[in-house]
Structure formats: C-alpha cells, structure tokens
C-alpha cells in the first residue's frame, strides 16, 4: 500500500501539537518538619518548670572551653538555672571558634587553670620559635664546618 508523504507530514504536524496523556508532575521531597523540635522544646520547658528553673537575664555571651582547645561561643544566649538541682540550660546557636579568635575579650572569663594553660601554650610557642632559630643557626654552622678552607699551595692527598 503506497503512503502519501504529504498526508503523513500533515498528520505528524497535528500529532506533535496534540499530546496524549497529561504532564507528569514532579514529586517534591518532603523535608523534616519542625514539629518535633517544638515538641522537644515544650518537653524541656515542662521539665525545667518542674525543677523551678529561673531565667537569668542580661547574659551577653557564653563560652565553653573544649579539651581540644576550641571554644563553643554563644553570642546571643538565654540561660535558665535550677540551683537546687545543680542544672543550667543554655539556649542559642553555638559557633565553634579558636581561642585566638576570641583572645582579647575572653581573658576576663577564663579561670585560673585556663590562664595557666594559656601561659604554658605561649611559652611553648616562644620556645619552639627560639628552637627553630637555633636549629637554623646550627645548620649553617655545620655547613660552614664541612667546607674546608683552602690555603695557597696546599694539596689534598
């Protein structure tokens, strides 16, 4: 059976305009809701109310010193304390920073042990810098000693 090319082209044009079936909708991923976070906060608030925790006002910042030398820094912090239960709660978004980043302002917040550790750290840094200079000087002396001085008329046999 012969196929008329004109009719075939016309049908293909019409079929390109008319789509069969609907457009497929993209399914979006469902992100975690904050309902659980709110539940946790309400449970925490209820427990603090049972402990008769009081809110401490006028706390500008809080810093927690970690064993690895880093500091958890709370810029805007909310504090609740229950002294009978020896419980303190800190609210806020912590930022992990190096001690050097907070150094000028943080000295007043440091305890005696932290200040001693800081002075030891500073002395170690100064000592390592001095040792580095001494090692460089010794290295140049060794290089100088290994090169013999030549005098006129002297041969090496």
Automatic annotation (TrEMBL):
Transmembrane segments: none annotated. Residues 38-103 form the NAC-A/B domain. InterPro entries: BTF3 (IPR039370), NAC_A/B_dom_sf (IPR038187), Nas_poly-pep-assoc_cplx_dom (IPR002715). One of its GO terms (molecular function) is unfolded protein binding. SMART domains: NAC (SM01407). Pfam families: NAC (PF01849). GO terms for cellular component: nascent polypeptide-associated complex; nucleus. GO terms for biological process: cotranslational protein targeting to membrane; mitophagy; protein transport. Keywords: Protein transport, Transcription, Transcription regulation, Transport. The keyword Membrane does not apply. It is found in: Cytoplasm; Nucleus. Residues 1-38, 124-157 are annotated as: Disordered. Part of the nascent polypeptide-associated complex (NAC). Belongs to the NAC-beta family. PANTHER family: TRANSCRIPTION FACTOR BTF3 FAMILY MEMBER (PTHR10351). This is Nascent polypeptide-associated complex subunit beta. It comes from Naumovozyma dairenensis (strain ATCC 10597 / BCRC 20456 / CBS 421 / NBRC 0211 / NRRL Y-12639). The gene is NDAI0C05200.
